[in-house]
## 1
Amino acid sequence: MKRIYLFIVLFMGVIPLFAQSGGKQQYTINARAQYEFGTVIGAGIYNEGDTCVLIATANEGHEFAFWYENMNNPYPSYEPTYVFVVTEDRDILAVFTTLEYNIEVTVSPTGYGSVTGAKKYKYGETCSLMARFYEGYDFEKWTENGVTVSTNPVYQFTVTCDRNIKAHFFKRSYDITASVDPVEAGIVEGGGTFTYGESCVLKTFPHSGYDFIGWKKNNNTLVSTDAIYVFDVAQSANYVAGYEPKTYTVFVNANPSNGGFVSGSGSYQYNQECSVTATAAEGFQFVGWTENGDTISTDNSYNFIVQGNSNLVANFIPNIGVEEQQNSRLVVYPNPVTDKLTVEFEEGIGHLEIISLAGDVVYSHDVCGNKTSVSLTDWPKGIYFIKVQGKTVSTIRKFVKQ
C-alpha cells in the first residue's frame, strides 16, 4: 500500500489541478495595451464563472478604439470598459489610436509672404513651419494668441493640440542717397529712407556753366537722362547726377585788322583758363582789350577764366603822336578822372576828339583857345584817348575814366 500511494502522488503531479476554491477551474485573462498608447487594468487569474472587468485608459494624445482578441472574436467590445464572464483563458489587446490635431497658419499682412507646413499632424509628431517672404519683404515673427512664439523663419515644435499660428511679415526699408559729380556742377533734392515699392523722386538743378548728362545708379549704370527722376524703390542705392562743363567759344579780333596779330580763339570748357595775346604790327601800338565796348585789360597777354562766349577785340592805334614825350605841350588832368577833364595845349586847340579803346570817336568838338574842359560824369569807366589838333601838330594822350 505504501508504494501505491507514492505512485498516485507522482501521477497527480502531471495532471492539471482543479481550482482550490470550491473545485472550480481557474483561467488566466491576459490584457495589454497596444504600443504603450495607454494602460489596461483588470487582467489576472479568475475562477470559472467569475466576472472580469477590463478598463482601458488612453495616454495623452491617444484615445481608445476597440478590444481585439483573435480572428474568431476580433472585436469583442468598442467600449473602454469591457465586462465579461470568465469561461476560458483569454488574451485580449486594447487598441488605441493616435489623435490628430490641426495646425493652422495665417499670414499678416496678406501678400507679403507664404508659409508651408500647415496641416494635420498626429500627436507627438514634429511640425515644421517655414516662412518664405516675397521680394522686398522680410519675416518678422510667429505669434499665437498675440504672444510671440518664435522669430526664426523656420519654427519647429512637437504637436500636442490644435494650434492657430500667425506669421508676421514687414516691408523692407532701403536708403536712397543722391549726389552730384562734379560737386560744384549743381545740387540735388530727394533721397532718404523708403519702404519697398515706395516712390522716390530725385531732382537736380544745374549751376551756371554746366549741362546735366544723366543719373547713374551706384556710379555705374545710366538709368535716366531726365533732371527729375521718379522710380519705385526696390533696394538701397546711391544715385549720382552727372554733369559736364558747357563749351563756349572765344573769338579774338584785331582793331584795325592791320593793326596787329592776335591768338587765343577757340572752344573752351566752362571755368577753363584762356590766354589771348596781341602783337602790334609795325607802325602800331597795342592799347588794350575790349569786350562789348568795355575795357577789360591793357596787357598784351590777357588770361581769364571762361564762363561764357566771348568776343574780344585787341585794339591798336598808330604810333604817330601816341608817345607821351616829356617835351609835349599837351596837358590832360586829372588823370585818372572821375568828373571833369581839363585839356591845355600851348599851341592852341583847333579840334578835340575823344576816342574809346575800341577806336570809336565818342566826342568831337571844335575849340577856340588853348584850354577847355569836358564833363565825363556819366561816361563809362575805361581807357580813352584824347586827340588834339593844333595849328601845326596833332597829338594824342591816354587817360583813364574812373
Note: Helices lie at 2-12.
## 2
Amino acid sequence: MLRFLRSLLPSILAGALVGFVVLGIGGRVMMRIIAHWEGRVPVLTSGTVTVLLMGTIAGIAAGIVHGLLLRFITPALVRVAAFLVFCVLFTLYGVHDLLLRPKLLFIAIAVVYAILVEIVTKRTAQPATIV
C-alpha cells in the first residue's frame, strides 16, 4: 500500500504546485479580468486567499487522478486525453453558472494546467543525465 501511495506522490506534488500557480493565481487573474468585463471594480479581499487555497486543493485532487491514470493506463495518448477530459469536466462542474466567455477562460486555464502537470511529471520521472 505504501509503495502504491509513493507512486502517486510525484503527480500529487506536481498537481499541487501547478494548481497553486495556474489554478490559484491564474484563476484569480481571470476573475479580475471578468470583473473588468462586467464593469465592476475588482478588489483584493480575503477571498483571494480562498481562491489560491482552492486552486491548490483542486490541483491535489487532479494530481491524484493523474497519478492513478499514470499507473493504470499505459498508452500515453489515451492517458493524456483522459486527464484532459477529467480536468475540463471538473472545471465545467465548478463554473456551470457562468456566462460563456468566462466559462471558456476557466476551461483554458484547466487545459493549461493539465498540459503543465504532464510536462512536470514527465520531466521528474526521467532520470537525470550527467553531461
Note: Residues 7-125 form one domain.
## 3
Amino acid sequence: MRMFPHCLSAPCFRCMLLPLLLCAPVFAQHRPAEASRAHRAVARTTGIDPAIARVIAETPAIDNNAHPLLAPPAMAEDREFDALPVDNMEPETDPLAWRPDFPPLAEAWLTLYGFHGHPPLTAAAQSDLEAARARVRQHKGEGYSQWVLAQAGIGTMLANRVRMGTGVMPPHFLWVPYDDTLLFPLTNSGLASATPDRAQFFSLEDKLRARYLTDAGLARVPPTLDSYLQQLVTPTLERQKAGGAVAIKFEVAYLRGFDFTDAPREQAAAAYAQYANGGVPDPAAYKKLQDFLFRYIARECGRLGLAVHLHGMAGGGRYFSIAGVNPMLLEPVLNDPLLKNTNFVLLHGGWPYVREAGALLQKPNFYLDMSQQALIFPAHTLAGWLREWLETYPDKVLFATDGYPFTSALGWEDATWLAARNEREALGLALTGMQRDGEISPVRAAALARMVLRGNAEALYHLAALPKSTAGTAR
C-alpha cells in the first residue's frame, strides 16, 4: 500500500555523490584528493570504470518522471502529487523496495535526515524518523523540495502534479499535468463498477473534470463532441501549455487498456451525443469515444509541442490489468501518420514487457524512461535491459526516478534518492560492460552517460536553459 507520509547539514554535491553513487557509505565530507581515492576504490569494487563513474556522478540529471510534494508548510496538506493517489487501494503483494524492512532505507534516512535507525522501525523509531524529517523540513523551508533534488544529483525534475505550487516551480521543476479525465466525459458509473479501485478512481476523475470545466468557464460538459473538443479539450491543453507544461500524463492503464483503435469521428460523435445528457453509456460505444479522444488529444499535443506520457508498468493494487499495459498495444497509435509529430514516453520502462518496449524504440516518436524500475530492481538487474536499450537506441532512453510518497518509511524524498543512486549504478554497469566488450570507446561511454542523464531529455523537450548544476541548492 502506498501512503502519504509526512540534513541537518548537507555535504557538498560532488564530494557526497561520488561515493554514494556506487553504494559506499559516506558519513563525512572529503577533501578533493580523498574523494578521488574513495571514488577509485569504490569503482574497482563495483566493477564500474572510474572514468564512467566520474561522469555519471558529476552530471546533474533531468528526472523525467516523479511526484514531488510541495515544500513546507504547504506539503502538510498536499494531495495534488497525483490525480489518482493510490493510498486507498486494495493491497497487492508489494515489491521488496516498498516494504518497511527494505535495508537501503537506512542509507536514505541517514543521508537526508541524519537519522541512524534501521528498518523495520518500531513505533518509537518511526516517531524519531518523523521528527528528524520535520527538523530538516523546517530548516530548509520553501527551499526543501529543491534541496531534495540536490541530494539526489538532480538538476531538474518533471513534476507529475495536478497543480504546481510552493517550492515546486521552474526552473528546477517542470510541470506534467494529468488529462485522463478528458477521455471519460460521460457517466462513468458503469466503468467504475468493474473493480473497487476503479470505483474510487473514476470518482476522482469526475472531480478533476469538474475542475477543468470551471477553469474553462463551463457549468457542464457541452452537448456535442465538436463543442466538447473546442470548448474544453483544446482550451485545457492550451492552458496547460501556457502554464509551463512540457508534457501531459495519462494514468489510463489504471482505468482501461492501451488498445486505442482508430475510431471514426462519426461513431464517437454519435456516442457522445446519445449520452451527454445522462445515462450509462453502452460500453462498446463509450470505448470508441475514448479511443477517438485519445488520438485527438495526442494530435493536439503534437501541435502544441507537448509530449504524451503513459504509465507503462505493472501498477499498484490487486486489480491492475498487467496484460492491458503491454506496450505492443500502442503500436497502431505509433504508426498513425496523423500522430507522427507527437512524442510518446512510456514511463517505468514497460516492465514486465521490457523487450517489447525496447523494440518500440524503433518508432521515431517513442521513448522510454526507467522510473520506478530504478527503485524496485537492483542495479545489476536493471543494467541488463538498460544495456540492451543503449546498444540499440541510446538516444531514446531517459533517466527518471518516480519519486513518490509510497509509505511512511519511503517518502518521495527517500524514493527519489534511492532510485537516483541505483539508476546511476545501473547506468555505470551497463556502459562499463559495453566499453569492456569493445562496443563503445571511453569517449562514447561518457557521451552516452550524459545523454541518458540529461541530453536526451533536453532534446526531447527542447530545453535550452535548465540548471546544469545543483550547487546552489546543496547547501
Note: The longest helix spans residues 412-436.
